[in-house]
Specification:
Blueprint lengths: L2 H14 L5 E7 L5 E7 L22 H9 L6 H6 L4 E3 L6 H10 L12 E3 L1 H4 L9 H16 L3 H17 L7
Parallel strand pairs: 3-4
Antiparallel strand pairs: 1-2
Length: 178
């Protein structure tokens, strides 16, 4: 059912700007094992200049890319990562490997995130920790939620996070702290 929409989105990304429709990047996963994450490309293709987080109103974000990011549609190819066993639907969001190194220096509990499979969405995201982590405070807040998720995992918490994610996708309202 999703296949035609995924194909249509890939074609739209290709038509919107030059480059591959799918962005691929190495990320840290369960147990610190690296895996290749898939996302729809939302930015102009640039020569490899290291990993630089996109910020709000970043000139590299394409017109279609802005919509895909706002709607979280750019994350849908990660369902392939879930099917391959690299990711789960719920869990700590995986970061670029370079960011993992930096975040580990900033937050001592950061490594605990790797005791769970990374997720397409997570406790941090439904509590407002989405987008760039350009400040120490944002890194610490996101890590706090991720570690809380790992330490206090329950099936009921999974249901709450899925419900909150759906609420955010369709109504864009803060579901409240979980």
């Amino acid at each position: 059912m999703l296949a035609p929409l995924l194909v249509a989105t890939a074609v739209a990304v290709k038509m919107d700007s030059p480059g591959d429709a799918i962005f691929q990047q190495e990320r840290g996963g369960f147990g610190g094992k690296t895996f290749r994450i898939f996302k729809f490309r939302t930015m102009s293709v640039m020569e490899n200049r290291g990993v630089v987080q996109a910020i709000h109103h970043d000139a590299r974000i394409t017109r279609l890319g802005a919509f895909l990011r706002r709607s979280s549609w750019d994350e849908l190819p990660q369902l392939f990562n879930v099917l391959m066993g690299d990711m789960s639907i719920i869990g700590p969001r995986p970061h670029a490997l370079e960011h993992d190194i930096h975040f580990h220096k900033v937050e001592l509990t950061y490594a605990e995130r790797f005791s769970a499979r990374p997720g397409v969405t997570g406790l941090a995201q439904v509590n407002g920790c989405r987008g760039p982590t350009e400040t120490v405070e944002k890194i610490k807040a996101r890590t706090r939620y991720d570690v809380e998720y790992v330490r206090n995992w329950t099936w009921w918490r999974e249901v709450e996070i899925v419900a909150a994610t759906v609420a955010l996708l369709f109504w864009k309202k803060d579901p409240g702290a979980l």
